Amino acid sequence: MTAVPGLVVAATASGRGKTSLAVGLMTALSRRGFRVAAFKAGPDFLDPRHHQAATGRASHNLDSWMLSEEAVQAVFARYAATADAVVVEGVMGLFDGFSGQSDAGSTARLAKILGLPILLTVDARAMGRSAAALVKGFAEFDPDLEFLGVVFNQVGGEGHREILAQAMRSVPDMPVLGYLPRDPALALPSRHLGLCDPLEDADHPAVYAALADAVELRLDVARLLDSLPLFQVSEPAPAPQGAPRVRLGVARDAAFSFYYQENLRLLRDAGAEIVPFSPLGDAALPPGLHGLYLGGGYPELFAARLADNAAMRLAVREFCASGRPVYAECGGFMYLMEALTDAAGRTFPMAGVFPGAAVMGPRFAALGYREAVTLAPSLLGPAGTTARGHEFHYSRLAAPLGDDSGIRAIYALSGRSGRLDAPEGYSLGGVLGSYVHLHFGSNPDLAPAFVAAMAAAHA
After folding, report:
1. What is the DSSP letter of 204?
2. What class has domain 2-233?
3. What range(s) does the CobB/CobQ-like glutamine amidotransferase domain occupy (predicted)?
4. What is the pLDDT of residue 202?
5. Residue (of 238, 234, 235, 237) closest to 269 by Cα position
6. Could you tell me which of 184, 198, 213, 420 has the fewest CB atoms within 10 Å of its CB?
7. Rounded distance between C-alpha atoms, residue 282 and residue 255, angstroms
8. How confident is the model at residue 195 (pLDDT cuts 50, 70, 90)?
């Protein structure tokens, strides 16, 4: 058992500064010598990459809709047990989740599952005394939540700070732990799908340092640390480790970087050796692969470079034609199309496994949680296999993929409003492509089934 202090950084809504506060706090604690375990509530891929860049340790998604409470607690314990402090960044507003009728998938539900207190971030821009009313409403909405206090963001100056301090005297149970100024230097750059990837942004270390400096200067970090409760965590027993049964090629570069870390761990535990390769820079696939995993990312931003690497496109197409298992999600699925049309209307050749093109649009084409039930056997398991995940993308298929090419849509997909009629989960030989990012932790049979499919194809 390990005693570790921790908290959840939440906000009243999306875009209110919780990532900036979380990353600033992670960086400040890391500079003080803490080993920080970072987690992200919900399905987002980009915030965890900022966490990892700030702490030097991988960040992990905790999603109370995609995963059972037991699975959430196990993921949390596995990585919190080796840390000196835990910072969980919330998602959207504190109470926002799968629907408007429950707290499933919300930061609030996650805080209750983990037993962690909440530090509430409030964007005080264009607010004075009303900020106290907002804070009071959040503090009283769910009596089962524990709050450490509030941090005001986007504070205009000393006069604005004084108005907020005066107003908060009417909410004595919510101490104000800090005021972050309105400063463009503290903004993390963003684009479609969310924040910019820190690996592509040479300025991100300076932004992290500025955020940490602001946290140290404007927050009472000592008081915050003293107020954090210690909770007991035990690292789960490791899965039995034998020699890897199969070699799984995983696309990892600037174009393909969206992976749930637990998916890769579960695949390793099931017997896969993870072998990274770059569709952007490598001329050939690594030798001796038994399967491929093409995750999401930003292929539309690197379409010209992907198209120029004709040798890799051919290698992937031939691998898919071999019948060996290939699993492609969102950006990886787009790469398997015949072509990709970017936001400027330029069309580039891709791997050509599936006919037609993926075409970028001006706004998102799909967004939300998804539950998939397979209608036929696949690399995920037998027909009837259930998995949960999330969908968020700006591209669409130029034309439906039909049965005339031997392609079959094998997902029965459900969302927040029930069954979705759109075809999904395209199966062709050993290939399974989809816009949905599945979390393998939603069904413990998914990773073993994928590894078994690779082993069977190799036998």
Report:
1. H
2. alpha beta
3. 248-443
4. 55
5. 238
6. 184
7. 13
8. low
Please report where in the chains the tokens 């206090």 appear, as a residue. 149
Catalytic residues, which ones?
A: 330
**In which residue are the tokens 């791997």 written?**
351
- What is the C-alpha to C-alpha distance for residues 43 and 61, in angstroms, rounded to an integer? 6
Token pair, residue 337, equals: 């199309």
Distance, CA of 12 to CA of 20 (rounded, Å) = 14
Residue type, 178: G
Task: For the chain, give every domain's residue range.
Answer: 2-233, 246-458
Q: Which position has the higher pLDDT, 206 or 38?
A: 38
Phi, psi of 438 (to 5 degrees): -90, 145
Same fold, 2-233 and 246-458: yes
| For residue 129, pLDDT beyond 70 | yes
Rg (the chain; Cα; Å): 23
Task: State the greatest distance between any 2 C-alpha atoms of the chain, in Å, as a whole number.
Answer: 73
Q: What is the pLDDT of residue 201?
A: 61
Q: What are the tokens at 64?
A: 């109370």
Rounded average pLDDT over 452-458 = 93
- pTM confidence score: 0.92
